[in-house]
Design brief:
Blueprint lengths: L2 H10 L5 E4 L11 E2 L8 E7 L3 E7 L5 E7 L10 H4 L1 E2 L4 E4 L3 E5 L9 E5 L5 H15 L2 H4 L7 H12 L6 H35 L9 H12 L15
Parallel strand pairs: 2-6
Antiparallel strand pairs: 1-3, 3-4, 4-5, 5-9, 7-8, 8-9
Amino acid sequence: MDFKEKEKKLLSSEGMEHERVSEQRHHKKMEGYEPHPGDKNLSEMFGLKSSFDNLSVGTDDLGRLTISVSSQKGYHSDTLTSDKKILKGSRRRTFYDHFGEFYTNPFSKGKGAFAFRTRRNLPESRILREMRIMASRRITEEQKEAMPILSLEEDRKRLTALRAMDGKDPQVKEEKQAAENVVARKTQMENRFIRRMRIARQQTYKPPQPEMPGFLQSLFQEETDLPDDDDTKDENDGNE
């Protein structure tokens, strides 16, 4: 997909503008992802949806974040297969990495839904970086466009190359303008995704509270059990 085509899709889409936040996340299923039998109570924390594609971020009992990407409507009104609408966890294909796992449908032929699951607590920018690395190895350019920020780095490199070309050529000038619009729009989407991921991580990974030694704990308890000064009165008050 060239820049002019990418620009058309971003303009015709609402660009992940619809956001949903799950208030009761332990009771909300992830959209576009059918849980694997081994998933530990996976539930959605938030989602971003455009006119064509759907992104859902969930967490499980182990504190791992799962990011699933699926499509709900075909560009140019293409008919979507079930493998593109939902990642079927019960028969997913798994690719392992040091920082996480990448899932695809086994027979998607480069057009299906996919997901990335973290294995540890990573900064949100690192989560996006690792997901990009896995996506570059495991899915097609067409699949990446379901989550446009996955191809942002490649778009930036191509924009740099276009800027170095002769700007007098009308075709090059038009392509460069389209590239600048695409990069600017995807950068906004990336910033929004990182902000939402930061909130999700803060809710998911709770820093452990230091435990007080036994004698300090008992002293603290005794202190909290003491009555307030206002409630302590002399027995002779009011009796004189």
